[in-house]
Known about the structure:
Layout: E1 2-6, H1 15-30, E2 34-38, H2 42-45, E3 51-54, H3 63-73, E4 77-79, H4 82-88, H5 91-100, E5 108-111, H6 117-124, E6 128-131, E7 141-144, H7 147-157, E8 164-168, E9 174-181, E10 184-192, E11 201-204, E12 207-210, E13 213-216, H8 223-236, E14 240-248, E15 251-259, H9 275-284
Parallel strand pairs: 1-2, 1-3, 3-4
Antiparallel strand pairs: 5-8, 6-7, 6-8, 9-10, 9-14, 10-13, 11-12, 14-15
Helix pairs in contact: 1-9
Amino acid sequence: MRIGCFVESYNFxxxxxxxALRIFSETAKSMGHEFEFRGKEILQExxxxxxxxxxxxxxxxxxxxxxxxxxxxMGKRVIDDSESIRICSNKIAVxxxxxxxxxxxxxxxxxxxxxxxxxxxxELGYPVVVKSPNSRFSLYVEKANNFxxxxxxxxxxxxxxxxxxxxxxxxxxxxxxxxVLEGEAIYxxxxxxxxxxxxxxxxxxNKKVWGNVIAIKLENLPKKLRRLAEDAANCIGNGLxxxxxxxxxxxxxxxxxxxxxxxxxxxxxxxxxEIYEKxxxxxxx
Length: 285
């Protein structure tokens, strides 16, 4: 089995990601497969590979989406599949998928016009979280403490989108991140909120800060939490997802479903190192 791993230059800037990519390669080879890192040239070389593993950032406007579509059209197994990329790149689409399946989420309102804003915010209460539909890595995710702040944020976000999501604010010390592959949880961890912040990636004293990661063994995960993560993933598809969940007031609430989830050596893999083998196995089936 020949596996092509689509990457871009930024995938090699962080030591932990480089180490994880190396482990993917070593694991594949130990299982009897070929594993090669390829850039955009993979579009011309697709015939050479049996399956494709995308580690570059996914978005319908990015090369990764083109790679995924081409691989599918040529009958290749691909992670992430193009449908998952399309849905997960649009938080409104994800919201409606989860809502249809009665997945618990923070109270949410979708606002298309400025004259809808005040009423929606009053229903949710302040502070309120504002999200652009195509936000990622906490970019274009902000918190408004009053209507003046909210109006300014929404006007700015609507320059790049026709709608925004307003969401109930749930203050927690961490977010759960559950990795799900083909409907089954394969790793779990806590993404800690940095001190003085409220998001996983926040700006504190004008400095960008990421919270720490604490890996948790899957067998130590509450059954209700694990089931919720798997149910949320199944609303999107049968690929590889990172499910972000808030534990608040004794209940669990899904806040994000991400395709192309982060996998860093020493973080997501610490308590569940078998994730590499499981992903390679999924690519080779």
